[in-house]
Amino acid sequence: MHKKPAYLFPVLLLAILAVVVGCSSVPDSDRQQINFLKPGEEAAMGISEFKKMKGTLKISTNSTYNAQVQKVGQRLSKVMPVPNAEWEFVVFEDPTPNAFALPGGKVGVHTGLFQVTENEAGMAAVMGHEVAHVVARHSGERLSRGALSAGAVAVGTKVINKKTGLNPAIVAAGLGAGATLNHLSHSREQELEADRLGALYMARAGYNPSESVKLWERFAAYRKKSSQADGPPAFLRTHPLDETRIAALQAYLPTALKEYKN
Ligand SMILES: [Zn+2]
Description:
Elements: H1 8-22, E1 23-25, E2 32-34, H2 39-56, H3 63-77, E3 88-92, E4 99-102, E5 106-110, H4 114-117, H5 120-135, H6 138-148, H7 153-162, H8 168-179, H9 188-204, H10 210-230, H11 242-257
Parallel strand pairs: 3-5
Antiparallel strand pairs: 1-2, 4-5
The structure holds zinc ion.
Zinc ion (ZN) binds near residues 129, 183, 186, 191 and 194.
Protein backbone atom coordinates (compact mmCIF):
# COMPACT_ATOMS: atom_id res chain seq x y z
CA MET A 1 0.00 0.00 0.00
CA HIS A 2 1.13 3.50 -0.70
CA LYS A 3 1.14 5.82 2.18
CA LYS A 4 0.56 9.49 1.47
CA PRO A 5 3.55 11.56 2.52
CA ALA A 6 2.85 13.44 5.72
CA TYR A 7 3.63 16.82 4.20
CA LEU A 8 1.04 16.46 1.50
CA PHE A 9 -1.89 17.47 3.62
CA PRO A 10 -0.63 20.88 4.73
CA VAL A 11 0.55 21.64 1.22
CA LEU A 12 -2.84 20.75 -0.21
CA LEU A 13 -4.57 22.72 2.47
CA LEU A 14 -2.43 25.72 1.67
CA ALA A 15 -3.20 25.40 -2.00
CA ILE A 16 -6.93 25.26 -1.33
CA LEU A 17 -6.79 28.15 1.10
CA ALA A 18 -4.78 30.14 -1.38
CA VAL A 19 -7.57 29.81 -3.87
CA VAL A 20 -10.31 30.59 -1.37
CA VAL A 21 -8.63 33.38 0.54
CA GLY A 22 -6.19 34.95 -1.80
CA CYS A 23 -7.23 34.68 -5.41
CA SER A 24 -8.15 37.86 -7.20
CA SER A 25 -8.17 39.00 -10.79
CA VAL A 26 -5.88 41.66 -12.18
CA PRO A 27 -7.82 44.68 -13.49
CA ASP A 28 -7.69 45.16 -17.27
CA SER A 29 -5.75 41.93 -17.66
CA ASP A 30 -7.14 38.45 -18.06
CA ARG A 31 -5.07 37.00 -15.27
CA GLN A 32 -5.83 35.61 -11.82
CA GLN A 33 -3.32 36.06 -9.05
CA ILE A 34 -2.67 34.80 -5.55
CA ASN A 35 -2.84 37.66 -3.10
CA PHE A 36 -3.36 37.48 0.65
CA LEU A 37 -3.09 41.18 1.26
CA LYS A 38 -6.12 43.42 1.41
CA PRO A 39 -5.90 46.50 -0.80
CA GLY A 40 -6.49 48.80 2.17
CA GLU A 41 -3.61 47.22 4.08
CA GLU A 42 -1.31 47.49 1.09
CA ALA A 43 -2.23 51.14 0.67
CA ALA A 44 -1.60 51.93 4.33
CA MET A 45 1.89 50.42 4.10
CA GLY A 46 2.70 52.28 0.87
CA ILE A 47 1.53 55.57 2.33
CA SER A 48 3.62 55.19 5.47
CA GLU A 49 6.69 54.04 3.51
CA PHE A 50 6.44 57.06 1.20
CA LYS A 51 6.26 59.41 4.15
CA LYS A 52 9.54 57.96 5.42
CA MET A 53 11.15 58.37 2.01
CA LYS A 54 10.14 62.00 1.83
CA GLY A 55 11.77 62.51 5.19
CA THR A 56 15.09 60.97 4.13
CA LEU A 57 15.52 61.56 0.40
CA LYS A 58 16.21 64.90 -1.25
CA ILE A 59 13.16 66.38 -2.95
CA SER A 60 13.74 68.34 -6.16
CA THR A 61 12.68 71.98 -6.43
CA ASN A 62 13.11 72.08 -10.21
CA SER A 63 9.87 73.75 -11.31
CA THR A 64 9.89 72.40 -14.88
CA TYR A 65 10.31 68.82 -13.69
CA ASN A 66 7.71 69.21 -10.96
CA ALA A 67 5.15 70.81 -13.29
CA GLN A 68 5.46 67.97 -15.80
CA VAL A 69 5.22 65.22 -13.20
CA GLN A 70 2.17 66.86 -11.56
CA LYS A 71 0.45 67.22 -14.93
CA VAL A 72 1.09 63.64 -16.01
CA GLY A 73 0.17 62.40 -12.54
CA GLN A 74 -3.18 64.21 -12.55
CA ARG A 75 -4.10 62.79 -15.93
CA LEU A 76 -3.06 59.23 -15.07
CA SER A 77 -4.68 59.25 -11.63
CA LYS A 78 -8.09 59.83 -13.23
CA VAL A 79 -7.89 56.59 -15.18
CA MET A 80 -5.81 54.28 -13.00
CA PRO A 81 -7.79 52.20 -10.50
CA VAL A 82 -5.67 52.27 -7.35
CA PRO A 83 -7.75 51.26 -4.29
CA ASN A 84 -7.64 53.67 -1.34
CA ALA A 85 -5.50 56.10 -3.32
CA GLU A 86 -4.17 59.28 -1.77
CA TRP A 87 -2.39 60.38 -4.92
CA GLU A 88 0.93 62.15 -4.60
CA PHE A 89 3.70 62.76 -7.13
CA VAL A 90 7.15 63.75 -5.94
CA VAL A 91 10.41 64.39 -7.84
CA PHE A 92 13.50 63.21 -5.98
CA GLU A 93 17.07 64.42 -6.60
CA ASP A 94 18.77 61.32 -7.94
CA PRO A 95 20.82 61.03 -11.13
CA THR A 96 19.72 57.46 -11.92
CA PRO A 97 16.94 57.23 -14.51
CA ASN A 98 14.25 55.67 -12.41
CA ALA A 99 10.76 56.03 -10.99
CA PHE A 100 8.58 54.05 -8.62
CA ALA A 101 5.05 53.77 -7.34
CA LEU A 102 3.80 52.46 -4.01
CA PRO A 103 0.35 51.19 -3.05
CA GLY A 104 -1.91 54.05 -2.01
CA GLY A 105 -1.04 56.10 -5.11
CA LYS A 106 2.38 57.35 -4.05
CA VAL A 107 4.68 58.02 -7.00
CA GLY A 108 8.33 59.05 -7.02
CA VAL A 109 10.34 60.19 -10.04
CA HIS A 110 14.10 60.69 -10.11
CA THR A 111 15.54 63.81 -11.70
CA GLY A 112 17.78 61.47 -13.72
CA LEU A 113 14.75 60.03 -15.48
CA PHE A 114 14.19 63.17 -17.57
CA GLN A 115 17.26 62.47 -19.69
CA VAL A 116 15.48 59.37 -21.03
CA THR A 117 11.80 60.38 -21.02
CA GLU A 118 12.57 63.53 -23.03
CA ASN A 119 8.91 64.62 -23.20
CA GLU A 120 5.57 64.44 -21.42
CA ALA A 121 4.38 61.32 -23.22
CA GLY A 122 7.65 59.56 -22.35
CA MET A 123 7.08 60.48 -18.71
CA ALA A 124 3.50 59.16 -18.96
CA ALA A 125 4.86 55.85 -20.28
CA VAL A 126 7.20 55.40 -17.32
CA MET A 127 4.77 56.60 -14.66
CA GLY A 128 2.00 54.50 -16.27
CA HIS A 129 4.26 51.45 -16.10
CA GLU A 130 5.14 52.06 -12.45
CA VAL A 131 1.58 52.67 -11.30
CA ALA A 132 0.48 49.64 -13.33
CA HIS A 133 2.59 47.52 -10.95
CA VAL A 134 0.43 48.94 -8.14
CA VAL A 135 -2.86 48.49 -10.01
CA ALA A 136 -1.96 44.88 -10.66
CA ARG A 137 -0.84 44.54 -7.02
CA HIS A 138 2.42 42.91 -8.02
CA SER A 139 4.19 43.30 -4.68
CA GLY A 140 1.34 41.67 -2.74
CA GLU A 141 1.38 38.86 -5.26
CA ARG A 142 5.11 38.45 -4.85
CA LEU A 143 4.78 38.32 -1.07
CA SER A 144 1.94 35.82 -1.24
CA ARG A 145 3.77 33.60 -3.69
CA GLY A 146 6.85 33.78 -1.54
CA ALA A 147 4.86 32.68 1.48
CA LEU A 148 3.45 29.72 -0.41
CA SER A 149 6.58 28.56 -2.13
CA ALA A 150 9.81 27.60 -0.43
CA GLY A 151 7.74 24.85 1.20
CA ALA A 152 7.10 27.54 3.75
CA VAL A 153 4.23 25.79 5.40
CA ALA A 154 4.92 27.47 8.71
CA VAL A 155 5.11 30.89 7.18
CA GLY A 156 2.14 30.27 4.94
CA THR A 157 0.10 28.98 7.83
CA LYS A 158 0.87 32.03 9.87
CA VAL A 159 -0.24 34.17 7.01
CA ILE A 160 -3.40 32.21 6.51
CA ASN A 161 -4.19 32.02 10.19
CA LYS A 162 -4.34 35.73 10.23
CA LYS A 163 -6.46 35.39 7.11
CA THR A 164 -5.93 39.02 6.28
CA GLY A 165 -2.51 37.88 5.23
CA LEU A 166 -0.37 40.03 7.42
CA ASN A 167 2.78 38.63 8.87
CA PRO A 168 4.49 41.93 9.62
CA ALA A 169 8.02 40.62 9.05
CA ILE A 170 7.28 39.22 5.62
CA VAL A 171 5.30 42.23 4.64
CA ALA A 172 8.05 44.55 5.77
CA ALA A 173 10.64 42.57 3.81
CA GLY A 174 8.52 42.58 0.69
CA LEU A 175 7.60 46.18 0.91
CA GLY A 176 11.21 47.05 1.54
CA ALA A 177 12.12 45.31 -1.69
CA GLY A 178 9.39 47.21 -3.46
CA ALA A 179 10.60 50.43 -1.99
CA THR A 180 14.10 50.02 -3.36
CA LEU A 181 12.10 50.79 -6.41
CA ASN A 182 13.92 49.03 -9.06
CA HIS A 183 11.63 46.07 -9.48
CA LEU A 184 14.52 43.78 -8.67
CA SER A 185 12.16 41.01 -7.80
CA HIS A 186 9.42 41.62 -10.31
CA SER A 187 9.12 38.64 -12.50
CA ARG A 188 9.36 38.96 -16.21
CA GLU A 189 5.65 38.29 -16.47
CA GLN A 190 4.89 41.16 -14.14
CA GLU A 191 7.13 43.49 -16.13
CA LEU A 192 5.41 42.68 -19.39
CA GLU A 193 2.00 43.07 -17.75
CA ALA A 194 3.02 46.49 -16.39
CA ASP A 195 4.16 47.49 -19.89
CA ARG A 196 0.78 46.55 -21.37
CA LEU A 197 -1.29 48.15 -18.65
CA GLY A 198 0.92 51.24 -18.69
CA ALA A 199 0.29 51.68 -22.43
CA LEU A 200 -3.44 51.15 -21.91
CA TYR A 201 -3.70 53.73 -19.14
CA MET A 202 -1.57 56.31 -20.92
CA ALA A 203 -3.97 55.96 -23.87
CA ARG A 204 -6.97 56.46 -21.57
CA ALA A 205 -5.22 59.52 -20.11
CA GLY A 206 -4.94 61.02 -23.60
CA TYR A 207 -1.34 60.16 -24.48
CA ASN A 208 -0.52 58.31 -27.67
CA PRO A 209 0.53 54.82 -26.50
CA SER A 210 2.91 54.51 -29.47
CA GLU A 211 5.13 56.84 -27.47
CA SER A 212 5.68 54.03 -24.98
CA VAL A 213 7.49 51.99 -27.61
CA LYS A 214 9.72 54.97 -28.39
CA LEU A 215 10.40 55.44 -24.69
CA TRP A 216 11.51 51.86 -24.17
CA GLU A 217 13.69 52.13 -27.27
CA ARG A 218 15.38 55.19 -25.77
CA PHE A 219 15.82 53.24 -22.55
CA ALA A 220 17.41 50.39 -24.48
CA ALA A 221 19.84 52.82 -26.09
CA TYR A 222 20.63 54.34 -22.70
CA ARG A 223 21.27 50.91 -21.23
CA LYS A 224 23.59 49.99 -24.05
CA LYS A 225 25.53 53.18 -23.61
CA SER A 226 25.81 52.92 -19.83
CA SER A 227 26.66 49.22 -19.88
CA GLN A 228 29.54 49.98 -22.20
CA ALA A 229 30.69 52.56 -19.71
CA ASP A 230 30.53 50.60 -16.47
CA GLY A 231 28.51 47.42 -16.84
CA PRO A 232 24.73 47.27 -16.67
CA PRO A 233 23.28 48.98 -13.61
CA ALA A 234 22.05 46.38 -11.14
CA PHE A 235 18.44 47.48 -11.34
CA LEU A 236 18.26 46.78 -15.05
CA ARG A 237 19.58 43.25 -15.03
CA THR A 238 16.36 41.56 -14.07
CA HIS A 239 14.28 43.33 -16.67
CA PRO A 240 13.24 41.30 -19.67
CA LEU A 241 15.43 41.70 -22.69
CA ASP A 242 14.68 45.02 -24.29
CA GLU A 243 13.94 43.41 -27.66
CA THR A 244 11.43 40.99 -26.15
CA ARG A 245 9.77 43.74 -24.27
CA ILE A 246 9.54 46.14 -27.19
CA ALA A 247 8.20 43.41 -29.47
CA ALA A 248 5.54 42.47 -26.92
CA LEU A 249 4.49 46.07 -26.54
CA GLN A 250 4.33 46.55 -30.33
CA ALA A 251 2.01 43.56 -30.51
CA TYR A 252 -0.23 45.07 -27.84
CA LEU A 253 -0.36 48.58 -29.37
CA PRO A 254 -3.51 48.06 -31.50
CA THR A 255 -5.46 47.24 -28.31
CA ALA A 256 -4.16 50.31 -26.49
CA LEU A 257 -4.68 52.55 -29.55
CA LYS A 258 -8.41 51.70 -29.54
CA GLU A 259 -8.67 53.62 -26.28
CA TYR A 260 -6.70 56.63 -27.48
CA LYS A 261 -8.67 59.71 -28.53
CA ASN A 262 -6.79 62.90 -29.17
ZN1 LIG B 1 8.62 47.51 -13.82
